Amino acid sequence: MIKPIEKIFVDLIQKSLDLPDNYGTDREGNVIPCVCIKSQNIKLYNTPHIQITVSTVSSNTFANRKEYFEETITENNIEKTTYYERLMVNEQRAMQIDVYSKNNEARERFWEVQAALTSTLAEQLQDKYQFRISKMSNSFNLSGLEGGSDINRFSIRFNCLTWQEKVTPVDYYNIFQTTAQNTNTNIFADFTIQE
Q1: What is the C-alpha separation between 156 and 15, in angstroms, rounded?
Q2: What is the rounded CA–CA span in Å between residue 7 and residue 128?
């Protein structure tokens, strides 16, 4: 994926619920977020309006692969071949979206977040970034967990399938270490073979 899965969901929810980028700043100059990735040291509950956080709860890796490929470029009639290693991981992630508000907005609108997960925009983002959202989700009313702060909080959990890819150049059969042994004297020599 070329974009973090949490950021994709932030964009999806913000557009689907027609929310602004933020609600401005508080007295201390902190940005008041609308939709953000959880656990980024961002202050929440500083507005009566709806606030939404996205997080990965857990992940289960079901494929972890490595492959090599080469790319040959010709410049000034000189061919140069570069070798690459591609690392690929396929995961099933348990995602959680929390909807908060000091007023009734979280209670009245948390279903819109669930609906956004099956929207046309969600399908377009899945095709663009090559991931899949499960059609089934669970919702929990967690209001009152924050004690006396009187926050309405609803959590939505669902699974999605993701893949990650990292490509790096490698010295694949260009340079490698080897050892030589003389059978008469048992003397070893370490040396490098270059192309």
Answers
A1: 18
A2: 14
Asked if 74 contacts 56 with a C-beta cutoff of 8 angstroms, the reply is no
Check if the beta carbon of residue 106 is closer than 8 Å to that of residue 99: yes
Q: CA–CA separation, 38 vs 97, rounded Å?
A: 9
- For the chain, domain boundaries: 5-194
- DSSP per-residue string spanning the chain: --S-HHHHHHHHHHHHTT--SEEEE-TTS-EEESEEESSSS---S-SSS-EEEEEEEEEEEEEEEEEEEEEEEEETTEEEEEEEEEEEEEEEEEEEEEEEESSTHHHHHHHHHHHHTTSHHHHHHHHHHT-EEEEEEEEEE-TTTTGGG--EEEEEEEEEEEEEEEEEEE-SSSEEEEEEEETTTTEEEEEEEE-
Residue 54 one-letter amino acid: V
Mean per-residue pLDDT, 160-186: 74
What is the C-alpha to C-alpha distance for residues 13 and 109, in angstroms, rounded to an integer? 11
Q: What is the pLDDT of residues 94-138, one digit of tens each?
A: 999 999 988 889 889 999 999 999 999 999 999 999 999 998 888
* 52 pLDDT above the threshold of 60: yes
CB 91 within 8 A of CB 162: yes
The reported pTM is: 0.76
Bridge-partner residues for 75, per DSSP? 78
Tokens 């709806």 sit at which residue? Answer: 50
